[in-house]
Write a structure and sequence with these properties.
This protein has 866 residues and is of the alpha/beta class. It is built from 34 helices and 18 strands. The protein is elongated.
Length: 866
């Protein structure tokens, strides 16, 4: 697995060593404290304070550290902390008084407090959901790894030198590692020239989509998002979990003292056994968690096993120290096994604006359990070599602290059980809390059509969207014969004749089949050059079929597909195969190759001496335009798609600079030839003169239309031209745009112009531009259209009857009416109240054939919770 990508062998090891060095400061103090107590004349209470004050400092930068890492730079933030904690760690080895040691241990806690949440944020920038538990696990090997590696080494140094040498030597390590950190770590994949281009582009697109999925379309204030009950539940669970974990870490040295004949080195080796078990379980649990795309039960299961082992260790310690120690070693499963899956939960379920702060908060609360532990575990640190008078005093102290130690053991058992119970409660928490989403939220390839015994079907609809009145009519009946609807009306007026199959959707909202008016089924990711250059046309055609089926599966019974990006006329063949019943898929109108001028779409970064294929057909004159349209129509294209503007930049004031490609005369030639043959024209243009040329020539649709002047909007209205906005795609590209264009993003320009178009009454259709981002995920477009000014009813109409009119198919699709094709979808809730219901389509019928019916499926897959 580590060889699958250079990310695993570059990011993870550097981060692992970095935090291993940090964690050594917590393990070495437990081994050194008896000798520090002797040399600095500390009593047991002072020794406990020295161990515990680190964790008071550890509170300082947890929340701000996570926030800074998310919104500034995890690389730079951790670099500053490396210098700070090395300085304070070395200082701890040079102290002469208790007060000096106390201050430096507090400052060391402050310096290290921001590292943990910052590193989790860094990993979330580099690993998708499908990888995140494993990425966390490999990094978190530093926790048991620090004990496994450092304990024998620290014990050896204590045997051969002293605690000062040990603290200075181990405290200097961050200085040495800083140069490695600066050389190998980048904040984001976009900055990594060492990452293969295709992997980089795919990863960036995946991470953008996953981040945007969590943001949703509601702008929730930061404080309100941070005060969610789930956040406090997460922190409480982690507090109980760390109580057991740190009990193991701090109690173990005390237990080791019972093996009095062992040297410091051998004691350190025995001390590592529970952590070896923990490291192994951490890898196994996390790998299985990623494989199953499930977090909560994996973490809870490991905690449960660890809790049981702690119980068994407590029960057997009076009878056999060896058996008890074996159970203690196995408790490492609970101490470390859950961590990879546990820390994947916040990054996969919480919005980006709070995830860094939440992880810092949870880690801060969890680590407060360490303060109490360190104060109660001093019994094992009492000095063995003292004069007779001090030995008597030590014996009295040890007897008193041993009672506290026994009570603490009982407390730990209770806390461990509480941790297991609370985490199991988290597993049962409602789906609106920490519900798990699949790592790649793509529907599966579509199964074959479900066979029906009869060609007559009746649907009982609890609520039915009426495209004419924009209301939900209750208790409706739809009668279907073959592929079309023959009667639609209230249940008390439409009687279901004998012999009809009945589909009961009485608990659902039924709508016309959805239409995506701008798709690219021949595109499967953001790297268009690599797909065209490396994938054979036959393979891309199979990909296109799967992409079209994924769109159908989520409710899009009709697509308007605009150019194949090097796929030639494969879209024509796919459309024909679907229409002929050879394969299952949505209805399609297609445009073939599409058109550009010389210098348009082309693979970049290659020598000009190499002949390269073109994504589009090149046209450079009005006469070539006439000929190209004729050729496309002869080959079966439904639409003519042209790129009137392609490349763009931003001016310093944030306005887009969009040079035109075709001249007005060339665009007019496309339009004239297509309209004369009874076909329509689609124009790709973000703004500028290219867009104005298309408006002047009278195209039928403008794709994108990001920057619109008042005159542009008036022309849309006067000529009845449709705007297809593709809003969701720009949201995915926000971060990419900001880096490429000096802080500017297409999304910032698109939103206000879209609002103006809506307010002016421009005809707006529904289209997503899906293809550069995964097919089957474009339903997010609905939420952004509502967020940016349309009503839910307007958006539903855009994706049904308006798109049907734009395509010229309003007589056959776009509404649930007698005589139209039985293209029908259903959702559980009310999309007029919550447009995101259309992101959760449960039922799909195309032409009277049921292609999906999850209405009665158990759990979240169906409507059982509605």
């Amino acid at each position: 697995m580590l060889g699958a990508s250079p990310r695993w062998i570059r990011i993870i090891p550097v981060a692992l060593v970095m935090y291993t060095i940090a964690f050594i400061d917590r393990t070495n103090i437990s081994l050194a404290l008896p000798r520090i107590s002797r040399d600095l004349h500390l009593d047991p209470q002072q020794a406990g304070t020295v161990a515990g004050i680190f964790f008071w400092g550890y509170l300082a930068l947890q929340i701000p550290g996570g926030h800074l890492a998310k919104y500034w730079s995890p690389k730079k933030f951790i670099s500053v902390l490396l210098v700070a904690w090395a300085t304070f760690a070395v200082g701890c080895g040079l102290v002469r008084t208790y007060q000096q040691l106390l201050i430096l241990r507090l400052l060391l806690g402050v310096a290290e407090s921001g590292v943990f949440p910052a590193t989790l944020i860094l990993l979330s920038h580099w690993f998708s959901r499908a990888e995140r538990a494993r990425a966390n696990a490999f990094w978190l090997l530093c926790l048991p790894g620090a004990v496994i590696v450092a304990s024998p080494f620290s014990g050896w140094m204590l045997d051969h030198w002293n605690w000062r040498v040990m603290l200075v030597a181990e405290g200097s390590l961050p200085f040495l590692w800083l140069s490695i950190w600066l050389l190998f770590i980048q904040d984001h994949p976009e900055e990594a020239a060492w990452l293969p281009e295709r992997e980089r582009n795919t990863l960036v697109a995946t991470l953008r989509r996953e981040s945007l999925d969590l943001e949703g379309t509601q702008n929730i204030p930061y404080l309100q998002a941070l005060l969610r009950p789930q956040v406090f539940l997460l922190a409480a669970v982690y507090f109980c979990f760390v109580s057991g974990q740190m009990g193991l870490l701090f109690w173990l040295p005390s237990a080791m003292e019972k093996f009095k004949k062992l040297s410091g080195l051998h004691t350190g080796l025995l001390y590592t056994l529970p952590f070896i078990v923990g490291a192994t379980s951490l890898l196994i649990v996390s790998r299985h968690s990623d494989k199953r795309h499930e977090r909560r039960r994996h973490a809870a299961g490991a905690m449960f096993i660890g809790g049981c082992c702690i119980l068994l260790a407590v029960a057997t310690i009076p009878y056999s120290l060896s058996i008890a120690f074996a159970f203690i070693a196995l408790s490492g499963i609970g101490a470390y096994g859950p961590m990879g899956a546990f820390w994947a939960i916040p990054t996969e379920t919480l919005p980006a604006k709070i995830v860094g702060s939440v992880m810092g908060f949870a880690n801060a609360i969890g680590n407060q359990s360490e303060i109490g532990e360190s104060r109660q575990k001093i019994a094992g640190f009492l000095v063995e070599k003292a004069d007779d008078k001090r030995r008597k005093v030590s014996a009295q102290i040890a007897n008193g602290v041993r009672k506290t130690h026994h009570r603490a053991n009982n407390l730990r058992v209770g806390v461990s059980i509480l941790g297991v119970a609370m985490f199991l409660a988290l597993c049962l928490f409602p789906a609106t809390g920490f519900a798990q989403e699949p790592a790649t939220p793509l529907p599966p390839p579509l199964p074959p059509p479900r066979a029906r015994m009869k060609e007559r079907v009746a649907i009982r609809a609890g609520r039915l969207f009426d495209s004419k009145s924009d209301v939900l009519k209750k208790q409706q009946v739809i009668l279907i014969e073959g592929a079309r609807m023959v009667q639609v009306g209230p249940a008390n007026e439409v009687q279901i004749p004998p012999g009809y199959d009945v589909l009961d959707l009485s608990n659902a909202t039924v709508l016309p089949g959805l239409i995506d008016g701008h798709t690219h089924v021949f595109t499967s990711g953001p790297d268009l050059d690599e797909q065209m250059m490396k994938e054979p046309l036959q393979y891309r055609t199979l990909e296109a079929l799967v992409n079209a089926q994924r769109d159908l599966y989520v409710g899009f019974t009709t697509l308007r597909d605009l150019k194949t990006l090097g796929g030639m006329f494969g879209d024509v063949d796919l459309r024909n195969a679907i229409n002929n019943g050879l394969v299952q898929g949505p209805r399609m109108q297609v445009s073939g190759r599409g058109f550009q001028t010389t210098g348009g779409f082309r693979p970049k970064g290659y020598s000009r001496d190499i002949p390269l294929p073109s994504m589009l057909e090149t046209v450079d004159s009005p006469w070539e335009a006439h000929k190209a349209v004729r050729e496309h129509l002869t080959n079966g294209a439904d639409w003519i798609k042209l790129y009137a503007a392609y490349e763009f930049t931003f001016a310093p004031d944030g306005k887009m600079v969009v040079p035109p490609t075709f001249t007005l005369e060339e665009v007019q030639a496309f339009v004239e030839e297509a309209h004369d043959k009874g076909h329509k024209v689609s124009c790709h243009a973000f703004g500028g003169k290219g867009l104005r040329n298309c408006l002047a020539a009278g195209v039928d649709t403008i794709e994108h239309g990001v920057e619109l002047s008042d005159d542009d909007i008036q022309q849309f209205k006067t000529k009845g031209i449709y705007l297809i906005p593709t809003l969701y795609h720009y949201q995915l590209d926000r971060e990419h745009d900001a880096k490429k264009y000096g802080g500017h993003a297409v999304a910032e320009v698109s939103e206000p112009n879209f609002r103006r178009a809506v307010a002016a009454g421009v005809k707006i259709g529904f289209g997503t531009g899906v293809g550069p981002f995964p097919h089957g995920t474009q339903t997010k477009e609905f939420g952004y259209m509502v967020k940016f000014g349309m009503t839910p009813a307007q958006v539903i109409r855009a994706a049904t009857i308006v798109d049907a009119q734009m395509m010229g198919w309003e007589a056959d699709i776009g509404s649930i009416e007698r005589g139209k094709f039985a293209d029908i979808v259903a959702v559980c809730g009310d999309p007029l109240a919550d447009i995101t219901e259309l992101e959760r389509v449960k039922f799909v019928m195309k032409g009277g054939q049921v292609v999906r019916n999850d209405m009665n499926s158990p759990g979240e897959k169906g409507c059982g919770q509605k």
